[in-house]
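Hi everyone, sorry if this is the wrong subforum. Our group has a chain we'd like a structural model of before ordering constructs, and none of us has done structure prediction before. Sequence below.
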Amino acid sequence: MTRSYGGSEAEGGGERFRDSQFLVFMNRILALTVAGLCCVLFKQPRHAAPMYKYSFASLSNILSSWCQYEALKYISFPTQVLAKASKVIPVMLMGKLVSHKSYEYWEYFTAVLISVGVSMFLLSSHTNKHPSTVTTFSGVIILAGYIVFDSFTSNWQDNLFKYKMSSVQMMFGVNLFSCLFTVGSLLEQGAFFDSLAFMSRHSEFAFHAVLLSICSACGQLFIFYTIAQFGAAAFTIIMTLRQAIAILLSCFLYGHAVTFVGGLGVAVVFLALFLRVYARSRMKKSSKRAVQPPVQKV
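Answer:
Right subforum, don't worry. Here is the predicted structure as tokens:
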């Protein structure tokens, strides 16, 4: 979305790909193919969920992906970091609305600590090699849409798993509607064939789009499994931490220095994770004691 194909941008040549929705379609069609093959090759449980229920997660997923790509044109790097690092809290709030889940006070507290720690680390690790986009009001609105739709998607999928389906079946159902929605919208706007023409003109773009789609499809296999096993909030914490872990790994591999603020941010994140594990283990022990019958003395 931010580079030119077919010529040097410095010389005024080349052209940029502008349609975020086509990238979403590429991601979803390949994910649908992967999920379909898995359903055919491996035995799946009996499907009981109404098909139309996948459409809600599918539509919100498309809108969140579109907002994520589109917002990159209008927001700065620090704004991106703060928004993505603080996603845990909106997901928990959306869980109360969609699934009527209740969270303990320590879960909110550790979610805030994780958001603060990741933000500190990512912001301190950013180098200004490229000019940062100025954040505009429209960019903030699009970013807010991304957070709302993304929070709804994972919680609705978490709610759908009550039908005892497999993660691959969930992946197939969501991506089936995603493909129908996106291709319908692209054809209505007349952008579908223009995007295919751009892809045929620039083989490098075609390679990049396919590579992006393969990574997205493989990532979805892990995403749906994680949501099915651990829930939407745990999945969002994992997705938030992966950004910090990726940069931390890069620092070790390539010898980049970690600033004092970045190190402090990492310490805050690990403190939050320790508190989360400790509080959860205490709750499990107390619940076990409550279930066990009292010992009668003879």
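For your construct planning: The mean pLDDT is 83. The first helix runs from residue 20 to 41.
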